[in-house]
Each structure stands twice: as C-alpha cells, then as structure tokens.
Fold this sequence. Notes:
It is a single chain. The protein is of the alpha/beta class. The protein is 31% helix and 12% strand. The protein contains six helices and four strands. A four-stranded parallel beta sheet has the order 2-3-1-4. Strand 2 (101-104), helix 4 (110-121) and strand 3 form a beta-alpha-beta unit. The relative contact order is 0.17. Keywords: DNA-binding, Hydrolase, Isomerase.
Amino acid sequence: RHIPYHLGTATLPPSEAKLLKEHLNMGTECVELYLDTDCKNIFHCIQKMRHLINSYHDLVPLILPHSSSNKFIVFFNSRRAAQEGAQFLCSHLPKDQIELVKRIHSGMSNEFHHDEVHALKIGNWLGTCATDAVGMGIDIPDIRIVVRYSVPTFLNSWYQ
C-alpha cells in the first residue's frame, strides 16, 4: 500500500534526512523537492492549522489584519474550497470591502479568468481565492500576501 508523506524542513542536514528516510522505509521512488528560498523579499512561513480545514478560520490572522492595504492570493486545492474560502473571507470583511474579494478557478471561462486577473493587477480587487490554474503564468508585482491553504495535492503545485 502506498502512503504519501509530506516532510518539510529548512534545517535538516542531509545525513539526518537520509536516516529519516530509512526509518520511514522510503525507497527509491521517493520524490525530493529543494526550493530556493534565498530571495530577500520573500518570506516563507508554515503554520500548523488550529481549526478544521473546511472552516477556513485559519485564514483570518493571515489575511484580515492586512486586507485593507495588501493585495493577496489564497491558493486552494479545489474549486469548491476556493469558493468557500472566498465566501468565508467576505463574511469577515467590512461591508465596503466584500465586493473586493473574488474567486477564480479553471471552471470559469478564459475570458472571465483573464478579466478577473486583469482587475486584480490594476487594483480593482483586493484579493482572490483561486486554484492553481490562476497561478500559472501570471505576474502581479504588487501582491504582498500569497497563501497556500493546505498541502498541495499535485507535484506541479509545489513549483508554483
């Protein structure tokens, strides 16, 4: 039986990583990803979720204190989660900001997708809740907060 593991570390030396993989019986089919985090303007942060994943309450301290001044994108693993996440955030925003948070996913038309990304780029929207489909190939230089809500389901999501 195949059981997937997700092991993240910033400080584990290679010798210890080897021992850990042996202890977990991780064979040669193990996939290792090394991400360069040596960018002066990017700060990675991993937080343990304190609430049920489908409650979206863990988004509150990440997005809401900064919502009036910083554009954001929250990436979700599914269309449904992106829609529910957007609804949750909107329900916690001041009334004048509710319409400034959108959702974008692959189930929407190319024209709608393009228009929504453009609106985010030019500042019409404060943020978006999206699937990985929106992140492929876009460049929005003034995005200040990017959240990956839960562990990505697919390997290509790690490279985003």
